[in-house]
Amino acid sequence: MLKMRKEVDFLVIGSGVAGLCFALKAANYGKVCIVTKSKIDEGSTRFAQGGIASVVYQPDSYEKHIQDTMVAGAELSDKHIVELTIREATARVMELVEWGVDFDKNKDGKFALAKEGGHSEYRVLHHKDMTGAEIEEKLILAAKKNTNIEIYENKIAVDIITQHHLGVEVTRRSTDITCYGAYVFNPDTNQVDTVLAKITMMATGGIGMVYEHTTNPLVATGDGIAMVYRAKGAVRGMEFVQFHPTSLYNPKESPSFLITEAMRGAGAILKDANGVSFMEKYDERGSLAPRDIVARAIDSEMKRQGVDHVYLDTTVIKKQEIFEHFPNIYAKCLSIGIDITKEMIPVVPVAHYSCGGIQTDEWGATSIRNLYASGECASTGLHGANRLASNSLLEALVFSHRACLKSVESLPSLSFCHEVPDWNSDGTVLNEEMVLITQSRKELQTIMSAYVGIVRSNLRLQRAFDRLDILYRETEDLYKKSILNPEICELRNMINVGYLIIRHAMSRKESRGLHYSLDYPPYKQ
Ligand code: FAD
Ligand code: SIN
Which stretches of 272-426 are assigned E, i.e. beta strand? Predict the structure, then answer.
């Protein structure tokens, strides 16, 4: 079957909140093609529970939200980026309402606001405990109606196209790398298509699948970060992997089911098996301390007591509030025999969010010309060493909006690069041993979980690095010889991402925010 060549003004890779929001805006200025590697709604966005933090009513203020974000980020956040994001978030959230997103309201008609760890005020807008599903659904509806948007489901972007593909040497020191679009694998034809674009938006989401246990869906394999790194673009902050303190302890289930932090905001308390609350020993904010502190405290309690999980006592929340605000969690727990109005929920920390990623400026522009990044794959400077709960959906909205504003300025002066060659698959053969890929994936996850988790050390990181190096060489060799398939692409990307997490962790000679090493004393704010 023939390879396809396609030209679009805007190529958007990923169909979560970041990709869809950019696509909807860019469609006012040109033709948009969204490439997404699974079904359109498959991504972290639809699993978001707690909600979207935004300043809407007094006594809250932008200053308070900015301060909370800076404190959570262990002062590594970029103050300028924090200020502009928080100040612009309210307008972006109101756009969601215009697109039809139905945030819960109180009887007086005002938005019902929840509280989560690290927030000094109630400011989290939500749709029960299914906020992400509501947002994703309404954005998809709008995108499907838009005649300027084409959606390619079940197609995986393999690499972005740069001068490298024209035979020009590109190094990490090159300052003029340009993106001309992406090579996209189509499993229906088994061909790699060439999508030429004037502007490319990377919106591929998170990296959770690099670990054994994660709240992230299967698609979260860090593809965008790996693609940009391979194209010699700037990636930063990968040592800051956020572990969510409370996923449902249900070892057979993958991905892990989240128990939203909003439950602690509503009064739920972390306890040990004897029903004793332990967070006070670790932080005066108790169960509502920022996530890095809570996840480490749980990890420490589990190790001290030699147990696999702790508990979240939700019985202190009024029944009515559980039924109205947390129906999804109530139903899920009941389905495995736990009535959360009467019993405590067994919980355990798991990998949840990547604070690092593709480095962008205040317009979502990456170090590669005509390539933008937004959402979880981007590192805008908002999160620093630790993300404040419910600050990521709003970041995606703000930077997809900004990226659109900036990219349409340059659009009239851009043209397609017709010299880009088709994908070259000469010399590759069908890999008939899928076990080589599936086993390597498991090995990677084991290495990352054992040595590069919540608590690290120089020795653990070196071990991880040495073991990953073997996997890297074996996988690159297999990749060069094999006819492409999505599994080998993802494995390669996951190994790239694991390598970046380890390298960045090795070069941070301090314990700060989400990066905690036994070899360095904790950073004092
Ligand atoms: P995603 O929504 O993950 O979308 C990524 C897209 O990229 C997908 O469509 C995927 O298929 C596609 N893709 C990936 N690789 C490729 C490729 N190679 N080719 C083509 N397509 C590709 N944040 C909050 O602010 N509030 C919350 O309450 C909240 N709750 C959360 C609960 C859970 C369980 C999880 C997992 C996360 C939560 N987060 C929350 C974080 C937030 O949901 C995510 O950071 C955010 O949704 C990411 O959006 P995104 O558009 O960047 O990525
Ligand atoms: C949650 O609902 O606890 C998740 C919120 C987030 O990750 O921002």
Answer: 310-313, 345-354, 357-359, 371-373, 378-379
Residue 1 has pLDDT above 70, yes or no: no
Over residues 449-489, the pLDDT tens digits come to: 999 999 999 999 999 999 999 999 999 999 999 999 999 99
> In terms of pTM, does the model score above 0.90?
yes
Residue whose Cα lies nearest atom 6 of ligand 1: it is 14
| Phi, psi of 264, deg, nearest 5 | -70, -35
What pLDDT, in 10s, does the model give residues 86-144?
Answer: 999 999 999 999 999 999 999 999 999 999 999 999 999 999 999 999 999 999 999 99
Show the domains of the chain with their CATH numbers: 5-240+355-413 (3.50.50.60), 246-349 (3.90.700.10), 434-507 (1.20.58.100)
Q: Once rounded to an integer, what is the mean pLDDT over residues 145-151?
A: 98
Identify the bridge partners of residue 372 per DSSP, sorted by sequence position. 201, 365
**pLDDT averaged over the chain?**
97
The DSSP line for 456-523 is B-HHHHHHHHHHHHHHHHHHHHHHHHBPP-HHHHHHHHHHHHHHHHHHHHHH--SBBTTB-BTTSPBP
- The predicted-structure confidence for 159-169, as pLDDT tens digits, reads as follows 999 999 999 99
Helix (H) or strand (E) holding 132: helix 131-145
Q: Of the listed 291, 402, 456, 492, which one is catalytic?
A: 291
What's the CA-to-centroid distance between 261 and ligand 2, angstroms? 6
Ramachandran region, residue 81 (left: φ > 0; alpha: ψ -120 to 50; beta: rest): alpha
User: Does residue 208 contact residue 351 with C-beta atoms inside 8 Å?
Assistant: yes
Rounded CA gap, 161 and 410, in Å?
19
Looking at the chain, the number of H-run helices and the number of E-run strands are: 13, 17
For residue 48, give the ligand nearest its CA: 1
Alpha carbons 441 and 61: distance in angstroms, whole number:
45
Note if 291 is an active site residue.
Answer: yes
User: Residues with Cβ < 8 Å from 71, sequence gap 6 or more?
Assistant: 118, 290, 525
Other beta carbons less than 10 A from residue 80's beta carbon: 10
Which ligand is the nearest neighbour of the Cα of 41?
1
The binding-site residues of ligand 1, defined as CB within 6 angstroms of any ligand atom, are 13-19, 35-38, 42-45, 47-52, 131-132, 156-157, 203-206, 215-216, 219-220, 223, 258, 353, 375-377, 390-393, 396
Helix (H) or strand (E) holding 269: strand 269-271
Residue 244 CA, ligand 2 centroid: distance in Å: 8
Alpha-carbon Rg for the chain in angstroms: 22
Task: Give pLDDT, residue 431.
Answer: 78
Q: How far is the CA of 176 from the centre of ligand 2 (A)?
A: 38
Q: For 299, list phi and psi in degrees, rounded to 5.
A: -55, -45
Q: Residue 269: phi, psi to the nearest 5?
A: -125, 140
